[in-house]
Amino acid sequence: MVHTSLIQSRALLARQQLLHQHQHKRLARRIHDEISQHLTLLSLQLSLALADSKLSAHWEQQCQQWSSMVLELGQSLRSIMNELQPRILDEFGLAAALQWFAHSGPKGLECHLLLPEAPVALPPAAANELFALCRDIVNEVFASNGITEVTIAVEPTDEMLRLHLRTNQKNPEMASLASKALDALSVHERMFCVDGTVEIQQDPAKSLTITLSLPVGRQPVAHAA
Length: 225
Fold this sequence. Notes:
Elements (H helix, E strand, L loop, with lengths): L1 H50 L7 H26 L2 H6 L1 H11 L5 E5 L9 H19 L6 E8 L3 E8 L6 H11 L2 H7 L3 E6 L5 E8 L10
């Protein structure tokens, strides 16, 4: 029993490391494409401007272009920092973070958010992981497979908090695609680490729902890695 548990823990740790590597590579590509290249271009343009002994006839226009480029760089940096850890999640909680994500999610994908009237109460570690999983599933399961509309619904009960991610777009292969994507994202293992579960449902009308469930009212069990 102990040997089996050790093997499972090592397998979980290995998959988490692979997931982190994938996330780091994606962020590194964003930093290169959205920041490094723009900084190089901006540096080159400033060097050329400084080398010119006379002010260009289009100097004002150039300054406006540089200002716009700096603003875009700032937006890219904020976006990357929010992907790493949204400040709104730490400061205002899960519901506010989901509202922010629903309004600033992937381009081409419309997110509808259904929140309960009562505040959503979860321990910080569980709330952080639930938000990260929601974001990963929307990005990697729905958006990457051509889904253009998703509903995020939070359903609290006395014992459980359920986060439903639902699309009504008909795609008979979506359940299979979602299952493979969830495995690649280590969703089952990540939910297990916060004492939660994940379920995929596809009804006859071909709508798909992914449900993340977490216990409330007590601290999640910390499973050894």
